[in-house]
């Protein structure tokens, strides 16, 4: 769920972290990184999601996501002039597409959603200064994506 997460850190790493806000007195280590607000519905959703992940089997989930990523990168690279950024064997389903010259990534994202019902993210270079030279489309398929869904994206691009 959006707005909910957790952080696991080795003690040596945790000792090097500095909270943005000063630590209140008497707060255990790492608690200073919490917002102090309780998003109860989000926390319940996170617990349910973790339970589903464990029931599905983390290794199976990783393997499936890597296979989806490979399939999407092979299918999408070069379609409509879009260039896949990651190597084919990157072990993730997330695929980043660099646009052809002159193509507006934000307009493409909007058209994919409004005309085809396809949800992707338009990511600007401000998200990774020094690494990105221009905007990209981020494709983040879920475990239940079908090859037909990826083919629909390719056709729309």
Which short descriptors sum up this protein?
single chain; 157 residues; alpha+beta; Aspartate Aminotransferase, domain 1; 2 domains; 4 strands; 39% helix
- Strand % is 5-15%
Any idea what the CATH superfamily of the largest domain is called?
Aspartate Aminotransferase, domain 1
Helical content class: 25-40%
Q: Tell the overall outline.
A: globular
Q: Provide the number of structural domains.
A: 2
Please identify the structural class as seen in this structure. alpha+beta
CATH architecture descriptor of the largest domain: Alpha-Beta Complex
Task: Give the rounded overall mean pLDDT.
Answer: 91
Regions with little confidence, pLDDT below 50 for 5+ residues: none
CATH third-level topology of the largest domain: Aspartate Aminotransferase, domain 1
Strand runs, count = 4
Secondary structure tally, helices: 5
Work out the radius of gyration.
19 Å
- What is the CATH first-level class name of the largest domain? Alpha Beta
Please, what is the oligomeric state? Answer: single chain
Order of strands across the main sheet = 1-2-4-3
- Quote the distance from N terminus to C terminus: 29 Å
Structure description:
- With 157 residues, the protein is an alpha+beta fold.
- The protein folds into two domains: 11-56, no CATH class; 58-156, Alpha-Beta Complex (Aspartate Aminotransferase, domain 1), CATH 3.90.1150.10.
- The protein has helices at residues 11-14, 40-56, 58-76, 105-116, 147-156; strands at residues 83-84, 95-98, 121-123, 136-139.
- It has a four-stranded antiparallel beta sheet.
- Helix 3 runs parallel beside helix 5 (147-156).
- It is globular, with a radius of gyration of 19 Å.
- The two termini are 29 Å apart.
């Amino acid at each position: 769920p959006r707005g909910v997460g957790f952080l696991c850190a080795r003690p040596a790493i945790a000792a090097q972290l500095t909270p943005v806000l000063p630590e209140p007195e008497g707060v255990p280590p790492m608690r200073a990184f919490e917002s102090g607000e309780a998003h109860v519905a989000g926390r319940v959703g996170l617990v349910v999601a973790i339970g589903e992940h464990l029931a599905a089997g983390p290794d199976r989930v990783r393997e499936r996501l890597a296979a989806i990523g490979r399939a999407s990168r092979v299918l999408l690279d070069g379609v409509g002039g879009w260039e896949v950024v990651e190597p084919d064997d990157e072990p993730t389903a997330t695929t980043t597409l660099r646009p052809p010259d002159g193509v507006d990534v934000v307009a493409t994202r909007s058209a994919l959603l409004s005309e085809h019902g396809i949800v992707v993210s338009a990511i600007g270079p401000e998200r990774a200064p020094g690494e990105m030279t221009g905007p990209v489309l981020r494709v983040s398929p879920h475990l239940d994506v079908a090859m037909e869904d990826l083919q629909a994206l390719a056709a729309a691009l």
